[in-house]
Amino acid sequence: MIPHPPQIGDYAITQSKRLRFTTSAAIAQEITYQNLLDCVLFTTSAIAPFTLFNQVRVKNVKVWALPVVGSSSSVMVIFNGATLGTTGDRVVHQDSSMGIEPAFVTARPRTKTLASMFQTNSSANAFYLNCPINSVVDVSLDFRSDALGNAAPAQNASVGATPGEVAFRGLDGLAAATSKFTIPSGLVQI
Fold first, then answer.
1. CB 182 within 8 A of CB 21
2. 121 — alpha (psi -120 to 50), left (phi > 0) or beta?
3. Total of domains in the chain
4. In the chain, pLDDT over 70 holds for what percent of residues?
């Protein structure tokens, strides 16, 4: 007797990725799950990008900020989601620095909080970020696609994108011209 083929556990495409951003202005804002999913996009036309993945999980957030000589610099990350399904731990991760050593925070949502689990494309808060201009922000994420082919449009249109490219956006989900987050040079930012 020939056994039947074994079941396939999952067809979804998953990807763990650390993304790096540099702030072009002081930041004091909520970063949503939609913002995180809009970091990696697929361009279908010059103005209509779509998210490459439809679920995201935050593994950790790291922030470095170098103070101006003779002054202080502070950074803060809070997993403060209060929306049902995304509730965070509300722990304040903060560091201040003076002199030449950068302020540095590494933060992750506590295990078994909803903020530590996969979330879909929504305007619910993933975390709050507060840092000065020229801060370096690393966000480590787990992405998962929808095996049924459902894709979500990006929250903001692009301008002059080349169709068929994988492109990147800042943590605020805005187009490159208005984003306060720049991606490493050489990558396609729309």
1. yes
2. beta
3. 1
4. 100
Q: Which helix (H) or strand (E) holds 33?
A: helix 33-37
Q: What is the per-residue pLDDT across 160-183, written as a single tens digit (0 to 9) for each?
A: 899 999 999 999 999 888 999 999
CB contact at 8 A, 116 and 110: yes
Residues of the domain holding 73: 20-182
Give the pLDDT confidence score for residue 60 in this predicted structure.
97
Please say whether the dihedral angle defined by the alpha carbons of residues 156, 160, 162 and 168, taken in this order, is positive or negative.
negative
The enclosing domain of 96 has a CATH number of 2.60.120.220
Rounded distance, CA 3 to CA 37, Å? 41
Q: Positive or negative CA dihedral for 105, 34, 51, 171?
A: negative
Give me the chain's average pLDDT, please. 92
- Three-class secondary structure of residue 36 per DSSP: helix
pTM of this prediction? 0.92
Within a domain: 109: yes
The answer as to whether 161 is a domain residue is: yes
CA 77 to CA 15: how far, in whole Å? 24
Per the domain annotation, does 4 fall within a domain?
Answer: no
**Does some domain include residue 187?**
no
What is the token pair recorded at 177?
A: 């011209």
